[in-house]
Amino acid sequence: MLVDTLEGAAEWLRSHFDPLAARDLACVVQLELSGPAGGSLRVRIDGPRLAVEPGASRKPDLLLRVAARDCYALLAGRENAELLFMDGRMEIEGPLHLALKLRSLFPPG
Fold this sequence. Notes:
Layout: H1 6-16, E1 26-34, E2 39-46, E3 49-54, E4 62-67, H2 68-75, H3 81-86, E5 90-93, H4 96-105
Parallel strand pairs: 1-4
Antiparallel strand pairs: 1-2, 2-3, 4-5
Helix pairs in contact: 1-2
């Protein structure tokens, strides 16, 4: 799946969501993607249910700020989340353990 737009990222998240991994989790994750093809995505996880919508959340549990091109490369498996964070190319506001949990909720492939 080619991911190079905000809607493409939303579709990728929907298609890769693992409801079993999220069964005991309820949270809102806000993705703020900067640059060309960027924008805001609100990701609401309520146990095995997922909603991904354009727009912002007033009080997300986790906020991730990253360039759109880096986010799309991450979703496509061409980039590493830890390196994005360590290089200062991704900002995380909120619990780090929740950010780390996202990997198990959206496995690649």
